[in-house]
Amino acid sequence: MGHRVKQNQTMARGGRNPFQHITFLCLLNIISFDIPVTGFALKTCRISYNVAICVRSELSAVPQDIPSTVKGFDLSRNNISRINRSDFRNLPVLIQLYLDNNNISQIESGAFANLTSLLMLNINSNRLVELGEDLFHGLTVASTSFKSMTSLKLLDISHNKLQHITKVHSIIQHLPHLRELYIKNNNLTTFHSWELTNSSLELKYVDLSQNPISVFSVTADVFPNLTTLNIGGTQRKQLMKWDVRNKTFFSRVSTLDISGLQMTFDDMKSLLETVNSSLTSLRMNAMKQNLPALINISCSIPTMSTLQLRYNKLRFVSSDLFKLCINVTELDLTGNEIQHIHCRAFKFLQSLSNLSLSHNRLSSVPAATRNLPTLRELDLSSNNIRELGCDDFTNQTMLRQLSLYQNSVSALSECVFKDLIQLQVLKLQTNRISNLNGAFQMYLPNLRQLLLNGNELTTIKHGEFRGLQSLQNLSLHDNQIQDLKNRCFIGLTNLTDILLQKNHIKETEINKGVFNDLINLRRLDLRENCIKYDDCSALPYAPFSQLSRLETLAIPSQHRRLKSHLPRNFLQGLTNLSEFNARNIQLLSLHKDMFNYTPQLQTLDISSNDLRDLSPELFSPIQNLQSLYISHVDLGSLDFLIDANLTKLEFLQARKNQYSVISEEIIQSLPALVYVDLFGNSFTCDCDNAWLLKWIENNNQTQVFDAYNFECNYPVNLKGKKLLDLSIQSCSVDIEFIYFISTTCTILLSMVVSFTYHFLRWHLAYAYYLFLAFLFDTKHKNKQAPNQYDAFISYNTHDEPWVIRELLPKLEGEQGWRLCLHHRDFEPGKPIIDNITDAIYGSRKTICVISRRYLESEWCSREIQVASFRLFDEQKDVLILVFLEEIPTYHLSPYYRMRKLLKKRTYLSWPRAGEHTELFWEKLRQALKTREDCGEDSLLLTMDKP
Q1: What are phi and psi of 106, to 5 degrees?
Q2: How many other CB atoms are there within 10 angstroms of residue 572's CB atom?
Q3: Distance between CA 289 and CA 806 in Å, rounded?
Q4: Helix H segments across 300-344?
Q5: What DSSP line would sit under 612-642, residue for residue?
Q6: Which of the two ends of the chain, N or C, has the fewest CB atoms closer than 10 A to its terminal CB?
């Protein structure tokens, strides 16, 4: 029949009560600032504003990957058949839970045990036959085992098969703070108050509608706080017997719904008398009985102000139908097939403020409405009205809202709204209006919202809306507008929203500056028009240059499907623009300076274009961007995000592109990202995406939408496989094992170094110098020249006096040997080490004058090392050791090479010579005189063996 009929049909099939939606949104608004939900990949659901949404996901069980911080959980319209004890154990802060429209036939004991914060539970439209009394066991806040779920305020178990009120009582007796209870359509056949005794109920709203109740008996005050009662009937022809012993039992009921209820007239009269002292709103929709008599009885209730009489097939409204309804302020006659209304039908309703005549068969505005000076809202939508006359709304100076949508009005006249000086909302959409005829040029000074969408307008003339100086919202979409005359919007200085999508407007129209008068405009929608630009060249006049307060701009998708560009200064002047929608306009490119004029941009949608490539420079002027939609633009890579510096981006939708790899650098360049949608891309299933897989599964900040359905496209043998099924063990290095090995090696190395330094440092030093000597020996062994000297004297500077006074006079002066001394014979300017090696290899012998100072000298050590290498390399007797002082053998331990020499060779000792120095000098002479083969050592140097 129409929108409202469909809404009722949905309710009858188990849809949610609109009141529940309002409650749900209010609760979420209250809690939305508490604990934000962090993101990750969910297999079947998505998270939005702290709500896990799993609607129509073909689930057969409650998913277990829902974050513990969600406060709303919608599992409606799935195939869940059983609720287990563990299904909701990790959701301690859940406030809203929807399980409606499933196949639930069993709920385990204590299934809601951890939902201590739950305020709303909806399990309607399932197959529940029984609810155990320990269903909520475990939700204790005190010692009493069943003082549970104290937070629950709304419970909806409608559209099940409980059949008896005792099964409901077993639950609600343990929910002491329950305010709203919905148990409609559960095949309840009786209602006896004694079945609810011993219950301390605070219920304010009870819905028992659509149950074939044959006896409604109340003998005790079981609902002392009840304000809303719905006991509407079913399609069965069974009469309900009303038995309420005390009329005070429902003395607080202010809203009563008895739609479709079938009772005897006396019982109906008794029912209405029961609420006689408190009733303010009565719904008697689709009644089968004597409606005029019921109207008279209900209107006799002095407090009753709202009367709903939908779908009663009145067809004709007589002059006396509402003669007793003098206190009614709201009257709803929707869907009654009304064709005629007597001109004096509402004359007794002198306080009427709201009147709904929608979804009837009226061909014109009824004259009866002209005599209602207090009327605030009039709904004539969805009728057959073809014309509007100048007298149709006479005297309605208090009217605030007028609904005329879904009629057949073809034209307006200048005088039609002349008396509506207080009108704020006018709904004329979905008619056949092709000409406004000046209807908005003079009147309606307080109009805030005008809906003209879905008509047949082709032209907006100059000053067409000049009389609407208070207008804020103008809807002109879904017309045939192709001509916007110069200054057609003059006078609309307070307009904030204008919708022009789905028309035939061309770029030549908007280039004329037709929007310049809309200085306070906040939202402009031009989608699905014929606006097209051939290149990126700057326009001589930017079309929106005067709209500095515009916040939302949507530009058209092309009817002709022709490739297009946007001029580089298209957005010039839009300094406060926060949302730009350029989806599906066949764009081939975006100039890098496009967003230089929009520094406040937060949402950008350029999806479904042929951009193929995006430059990081494009985003440099819009560092406040929070949401980016780049789906279906043939992007081969998202690498541009790395340098785009979008540090505030929270939402990224990049579906159905051509990239196959998402690198770590891309994600790390978006530190604020909380939601990303990468569905429909051709992912490569190899180690290039190993990091992406680990990040999807382990990150606790970003929700990756539908990640479990990402499919592989490469390599060919994995095509069609799920990306998250890919094993990446071979791609990763065990960092922990590497840390262990590195730490172990470091510790062992430290221990070895410490041990070596403490016990072997002198041996290492000696080995170092030995190695250097080896190098020098290798360098010079092939360069031997005839000996220049008989002996090279290796001594420490501190022993120089003995060498000068004792050694030199004897060996050179008396014995005639030619000696080499460093202070006398070394070549000036030549490196010392070269002088040393040349002196050793240029002498027949090397005499080492050893003292404690000698052992500690670095250069002396090098000299004896080079001499040692010559000794071992040439196998000649070239080394003579002369000790100037007694040095114990154990003191030679650090000088390992020296100690080893002493064990194999004899030596001369100056202290042992004592007074017989002549023998010392003779032995030294013999040593210098001997041939240079090692075989003579034993004969000549035997006296000084230690």
Answers
A1: -145, 135
A2: 18
A3: 149
A4: none
A5: ----GGGGTT-TT--EEE--SS--S--THHH
A6: C
Alpha-carbon distances of 526 from 439, 483, 531, 539, 591, rounded to whole Å:
24, 14, 9, 18, 21
pLDDT computed for residue 142 by the predictor: 26
Q: Count the neighbouring beta carbons within 10 Å of the beta carbon of residue 606.
A: 22
Burial group, residue 29, by CB count within 10 angstroms (0-12, 13-18, 19+)? exposed
CA angle 362, 364, 370 (to 5 degrees): 110
CA proximity to 428, closest of 447, 455, 448: 455
Instruction: Summarize the chain as % helix, strand, coil (round to 5).
Output: 25, 15, 60
* Biggest alpha carbon–alpha carbon distance for the chain: 163
Q: What is the pLDDT of residue 909?
A: 81
* Residue 581 buriedness (CB in 10 A; 0-12 / 13-18 / 19+): buried
Phi, psi for 666 (deg, rounded to 5): -65, -50
Question: Which of 134, 162, 257, 249 shows the shortest CA–CA distance to 201?
Answer: 249
CB distance 902 to 889 below 8 Å: yes
Domains contained in the chain, CATH given? 1-188 (3.80.10.10), 612-732 (3.80.10.10), 758-940 (3.40.50.10140)
Tokens of 858: 């670095």
Three-state secondary structure string covering 756-803: HHHHHHHHHHHHHHHHHHHHHHHHHCCCCCCCCEEEEEECCHHHHHHH
C-alpha to C-alpha distance for 835 and 829, rounded to whole angstroms: 10
Annotate 131-195 with three-state secondary structure: CCCCCCCCCECCCCCCCECCCCCEEECCCCCCCCHHHHHHHHCCCCCCCEEECCCCCCCEEEHHH
pLDDT at 145: 27
pLDDT at 3: 37
Q: What is the DSSP letter of 333?
A: -
pTM: 0.73
Give the model confidence (pLDDT) of 250-293 as tens digits: 889 999 999 999 999 999 999 998 898 899 999 999 998 889 99
pLDDT at 319: 93
Residue 553 per-residue DSSP state: E
Chain-centroid distance, C-alpha 719: 29
d(CA 675, CA 703): 5
pLDDT, position 722: 83
Identify which of 618, 630, 625, 687 has the alpha carbon closest to the alpha carbon of residue 659. Answer: 630
User: What does the pLDDT read at residue 714?
Assistant: 84
Burial code (b: 16+ CB inside 10 Å, e: under 16) for 773-803 equals bbebbeebeeeeeebebbbbbbbbeebbebb
Residue 691 belongs to what H/E stretch? Answer: helix 690-698
For tokens 């946007």, the residue is 566
> What is the C-alpha radius of gyration for the chain, rounded to an integer number of angstroms?
51
Count the residues in the chain.
946
648, 623 in Cβ contact below 8 A?
yes
User: Quick one: pLDDT at residue 928?
Assistant: 84
Buried b / exposed e across 440-476, counting CB within 10 Å, b at 16+? bbebbeebbbbbbbbbebebbbebbbbbbeebbbbbb
Q: For residues 566 and 537, what is the distance between their CA atoms, to the nearest angstrom?
A: 8
Question: Is the preceding peptide bond at 715 cis, omega within 30 degrees of 0?
Answer: yes
Amino acid identity at 431: N
Pick out the chain residues at pLDDT < 50: 1-15, 18-39, 137-147, 896, 933-946
Sheet with 789-794: strands ordered across? 819-820, 789-794, 843-850, 879-883, 908-909
Contact yes or no for 463/488 (Cβ under 8 A) = yes
Whether residue 307 contacts residue 299, with contact meaning beta carbons closer than 8 Å, is answered with yes
- pLDDT at 283 (0 to 100): 96
| Residue 533: predicted pLDDT | 85
